[in-house]
Design goal:
Helix 1 runs parallel beside helix 2. With 100 residues, the protein is of the alpha+beta class. The protein has 5 helices and 4 strands, in the order αβαβαββαα. The protein starts with a helix and ends with a helix. It has 2 domains: 58 residues, 3-Layer(aba) Sandwich (Rossmann fold); 42 residues, no CATH class. Strands 1-2 form a two-stranded parallel sheet. Strands 3-4 form a two-stranded antiparallel sheet.
Length: 100
């Protein structure tokens, strides 16, 4: 199985127990861009079905696009928090976390 197929299987296995909250740690790790997009589209579908998702992810820009709310840590402390789109558009967050 490819990395993307393995991630999709992991999501399916997690959903089988009908959780009240889905915890995802680096769901894009080791995936091609095509699979990253596919996995995050599925996560969005899961979220829109009413299941809350908590995601820890290095690809901050992608997560903020899909997030209702987010946190940006710096040196072990929360530096920023807020709505995903607000964090994505915040120039300080972009400089700190997104490298732009």
């Amino acid at each position: 199985m490819s990395g993307g197929e393995q991630q999709m299987l992991s999501l399916a296995r997690a959903l089988m127990i009908q959780p009240r909250l889905l915890l995802l740690d680096e769901p894009s790790l080791g995936l091609s861009q095509k699979w990253v997009k596919t996995v995050f589209e599925k996560i969005l579908e899961i979220k829109e079905s009413g299941l809350p998702c908590l995601i820890v992810e290095q690809k901050a820009a992608m997560v903020f696009e899909y997030s209702d709310y987010g946190y940006v840590p710096e040196m072990g402390n929360n530096r920023f928090e807020g709505r995903g789109q607000d964090l994505l558009n915040n120039p300080d967050v972009r400089q700190l976390n997104l490298g732009r």
